[in-house]
Amino acid sequence: MVLLVGRDFDQAKLGRIPEDIFIHQSVDQLTVLERADLFITHGGMNSVNEALYYKVPVVVVPMADDQPTVGARIAELGLGTVVRRKKINGQTLGRAASMILADKQIADNVNRISEDMRKSGGNEQIVKDLDHILNQT
Where does the signal peptide begin and end (predicted)? Predict the structure, then answer.
């Protein structure tokens, strides 16, 4: 497990860390997502899109802004679940992770949306579409 804590977090607050948990101040998120089975995130749109692109289901723990909406949509589409920040602890995260990893329907949904994302053409297709729209006048 990779745990990203940021630069300002006092890692000593975590106490004894099991050997299979790797704590970092920063990571190359795309490199990690290429190998991840599950992503626990605040629910930022970019992070969620990156996870889904790499076929990784998500547990969203919304903090602010659009994150509650993103989390609700993830749950609605069966791509993961939401854990409210006030309810977060080892048990709630563990239950959410176990549920997602055991749910074949979530895996199928994540695989399907990942394939759709990959087929869409990405940023290059968006530029082509915008050029087409803007040049129709």
Answer: none
